[in-house]
Request: fold
Amino acid sequence: MSAIESAARPGKAPSQLASGRMPARPASSRPKATPRHKRASLTLGLLMTFMMLYCLVPMWWLVVNSTKTMDSLYDSFAFWFSGEFALFQNIVDTFSYQDGIFLRWLGNTLVYVVIGAGGATLLATLAGYGLAKYNFPGRRWVFAIILGAMAIPASALAVPQFLLFSGLGLTNTPLSVIIPSMVSAFGLYLVWVYAKEAIPDELLEAARLDGAGEIRIFFVISFRQLAPALITVLMFTVVATWNNYFLPLIMLSDPQWYPLPVGLAQWAAQATAIGGQAIPNLVITGSLLTVIPISAAFLYLQRYWQSGLTAGSVK
Reply:
């Protein structure tokens, strides 16, 4: 059949036959969403809306009540602003209360996060990379121990850790918080999974043939490939260390070494103490100041965190 005869056939334009493409299906003949799919989408949308409100309502309450004075906290609606705007005064009072101990708690928290979370990220990256790319005797046992450590809740290790550090004479010191924070079994496992798929063995062999040492291979080649996993582990450890409450509570007795969660809990408990002074406005304002840095860090590193979570599946 000639091209002219083919073009003359109804329903097919000459340009479509010349390009070899079939005409697009009319919109009316395309598959439509069934009522079942619509119900599922509606249910999912309602569920996500509920989860969003569940997360945002406490934050909204915190922001609103941090702008109120002591009296207006009890006289006004909890989820809306009062006539007085006392946010800046509350911030000044929070930093000046008890000779500015809140600033000391903030500094302690930053030290615990920088050293503890940073050390946990570095150690997890080194150990996970080593388990993924090096064969050595007992490798399977090490991996089994790591999985077992992930299955043990942190609260079950609190008493053994306290007895261990008490025997070493390290309780009521920053080391009793920093050293346990530098161990992250989940971070090690995450790096191990990512390094196993993201770094080809052929790339490491080529670097060894070129005369590069193992340390240089790790920091020059592998470290860049592990950047998404490193950022992911860093986010998990930073959040866990920043919000750590139970470990410093049992390890520390001197308020000068408290992190922010423990210090704010002590302020909140003053109302129940004999002769204690209730300062709910300062506790709420301090909680808001505690949330802001970690929220800012999370939003800043969110894209790296997401890429770290999905890179393993893409590989």
